[in-house]
Amino acid sequence: MAEIRHFLTLRDFSREELNTLIHRAISMKTAWKSGNRDYQPLKNQTLAMIFEKSSTRTRVSFETGMTQLGGHAMFLSSSDTQLGRGEPIQDSARVISSMTDIIMIRTFAHVIVETFAEYSSVPIINALTDEYHPCQLLADMMTYQEHRGDIKGKTVTYVGDGNNMCHSWMNAARQFDFHLNIACPKDYMPNAELSEELADRITITEDLHAAAEGSSLITTDVWASMGQEEEQKIREKAFAPFQVNAEIMSLANDDAVFMHCLPAHREEEVTAEVLEGAQSVVWDEAENRLHAQKALLEALTVGFVA
Ligand code: CP
Ligand code: NVA
């Protein structure tokens, strides 16, 4: 039997596979928009979507993606499955994977998706953990490619919390061959082990102005992620100097784009002026979750299509 591939972080695919996937996503988007809608490689297949946290984009994009590929998507919230009542991950993984063809999970600890993958007989997709959000980076890399071309050799600046988005940008720097400046408060730095491993790819600084200079892409994320709601007030204080505003954008290259995984908090991590401004590509970025994940679903079931 062929080895099952999972997508838990960007490191699960090679650079070549990721590039193939991004270009495939762009051509699938073009085909769909030009009315060529007969390609249904996932006919009769079911995606189980396990959500232990809220979602708008991830749920809508995976569910719509499965419909467009000819398959079915099943929404499973932890609060109304046995997962929420303590059935072990190992048991849930074996049972759910015995009846479905592919599974996506949004949860807390990254080890949950790793354990799920270990016990699953079908591919597992990480749809966000506390540590990583690789599906978002597929859409982000696709969006940069569409707007500005190859990101290889460019400088990208991530502003804010050293969280799941930051870690995925770090992995993207390695896999897509760009340099990542990370501007963050000292108490909110990214994972130390990952930072050390990717030291030649990243620069971590508290100097937001220096980090933005010479950048081709500025991106940020919320100050308090899902599960950190009670830290909102204390985080607002720590992150206040790390807002992406027009002044920060003016330090970047003239052709720099602004990205945000969304949902955004206007006048917190980003001003409304930047979010709605000419350099912002956030709406394309959100839509591209659909196209990028269609290519991902295809790659994990049918195989990579060049
Ligand atoms: N960016 C993102 O994952 O959005 P949702 O939380 O709405 O899925
Ligand atoms: N860092 C955010 C990303 C949301 C898509 C969170 O985990 O809530």
Number of strands: 9
The CATH topology label of the largest domain is: Rossmann fold
Please indicate the percent range of residues in DSSP E strands (runs of 2 or more).
5-15%
- The CATH architecture classification of the largest domain is 3-Layer(aba) Sandwich
- Number of separate structural domains: 2
N-C termini distance = 23 Å
The biggest sheet, with number of strands, parallel, antiparallel or mixed sense and barrel status, is: 5 strands, parallel
Calculate the mean pLDDT score and round it. 98
Within CATH, the superfamily of the largest domain carries the name Aspartate/ornithine carbamoyltransferase
**Rg from C-alpha positions?**
19 Å
User: What is bound: which ligands?
Assistant: phosphoric acid mono(formamide)ester, norvaline
Structural write-up:
- The protein has 306 residues and is an alpha/beta fold.
- It folds into two domains: 10-133 and 288-301, Aspartate/ornithine carbamoyltransferase (Rossmann fold), CATH 3.40.50.1370; 136-285, Aspartate/ornithine carbamoyltransferase (Rossmann fold).
- Helix content is 42%, strand content 14%.
- The protein contains twelve helices and nine strands.
- It has helices spanning 15-33, 57-68, 89-99, 110-119, 134-148, 164-176, 192-197, 208-212, 232-239, 246-251, 272-275, 282-301; strands at 46-51, 72-77, 102-106, 124-126, 155-159, 179-183, 202-205, 217-220, 257-260.
- The strands form two sheets. Strands 7-6-5-8-9 form a five-stranded parallel beta sheet.
- The mean pLDDT is 98.
